[in-house]
Design a protein that fits this description.
This protein is of the alpha/beta class. It has one domain: Rossmann fold. It is built from 7 helices and 7 strands. The chain has a 7-stranded mixed beta sheet with strand order 3-2-1-4-5-6-7. Helix 1 crosses helix 7. It is globular and about 50 Å long. The structure holds glycinamide ribonucleotide. Glycinamide ribonucleotide (GAR) binds next to helix 1, strand 5 and helix 7.
Length: 201
C-alpha cells in the first residue's frame, strides 16, 4: 500500500476527503502522517479520530531562536522521511517550502490551490477570484493540484478544473463550490500520481 503524508494548517476538509477515500477503497493508500504547523488546526483532530499519527511542527520556536526557514525545513524533512512517504500532499499547508525540504522529496510533493494555474497565488485565492469576477476580469474560477516547485503555488499541473461563479453567488456559496470540487480533484490527482509512479518504477 502506498504511503501518504498530508500537511495541513487549518480545517483539514481535504484531509478528510483523503481519509474517507482511503477508508472506502477509492484511493489505494494509507495516510501514515498528518503534519500541522498550527496547533489549533482542526485537521489534527480529524487525524486523531482516524487513528493517524500527527506531528505539530511550528516555525515560531525556530524564528525566536534566530534560526531560518531552511533549518526548519531540513528538520521537518528529516522527521517526515522516517515515515517513508510515497507522496506528500499539501492540503491547505500555509508555509512555503525552500529547497531544503523539497530536495529531500523530489517530485513527491503536491499542492492543492483554490484557483487556476498562474492566478491568485498565495493566500486568499477564493476571495481574489470572487472579487475579480465582480470586476469583470474573469468569467469563472477554478482549482488545481500541482507538483511543488520553490515558487509559491506554481509547478507542473496534475489536475485543474474550472469552478463556475454564478451572478447570485455569495463569497460563501462560491467557496463551498470550490471546496466540494477540491475534495474530488485531490483524490483524482493522487490517483494520477500513482499511475505516473507505476510507469516510472
Ligand atoms: C483549500 O481551499 C486549499 O486550496 C487552500 O487552503 C484550503 C484548505 O482547506 N490552499 C491554499 O490556499 C494554498 N495556497 P481545508 O483545510 O479545509 O482542507
Amino acid at each position: 500500500m502506498k504511503k501518504l503524508a498530508v500537511f495541513i494548517s487549518g480545517s483539514g476538509s481535504n484531509l478528510q476527503a483523503i481519509l474517507d477515500a482511503t477508508a472506502d477503497g477509492q484511493l489505494e493508500a494509507d495516510v501514515v502522517l498528518v503534519v500541522s504547523n498550527r496547533q489549533s488546526a482542526y485537521g489534527l483532530t480529524r487525524a486523531e479520530k482516524a487513528g493517524v499519527p500527527t506531528l505539530y511542527f511550528p516555525f515560531k520556536p525556530y524564528r525566536e531562536a534566530g534560526k531560518n526557514r531552511a533549518t526548519y525545513d531540513a528538520d521537518l524533512a528529516k522527521q517526515v522521511s522516517q515515515y517513508q512517504p510515497d507522496l506528500i500532499v499539501l492540503a491547505g499547508w500555509m508555509h512555503i517550502f525552500s529547497p531544503a525540504f523539497l530536495n529531500r522529496f523530489p517530485n513527491r510533493v503536491i499542492n492543492l490551490h483554490p484557483a487556476l494555474p498562474d492566478t491568485f497565488v498565495g493566500v486568499g485565492g477564493i476571495e481574489w477570484a470572487f472579487e475579480a469576477y465582480h470586476k469583470g476580469e474573469i468569467e469563472h474560477g477554478g482549482c488545481m493540484v500541482h507538483y511543488v516547485s520553490p515558487e509559491v503555488d506554481r509547478g507542473p499541473v496534475i489536475v485543474q478544473t474550472i469552478v463556475p461563479i454564478l451572478p447570485e453567488d455569495t463569497l460563501n456559496t462560491y467557496a463551498e463550490r470550490v471546496h466540494a470540487t477540491e475534495h474530488r480533484i485531490i483524490i483524482k490527482a493522487i490517483q494520477k500520481v500513482w499511475v505516473t509512479l507505476g510507469e516510472s518504477s
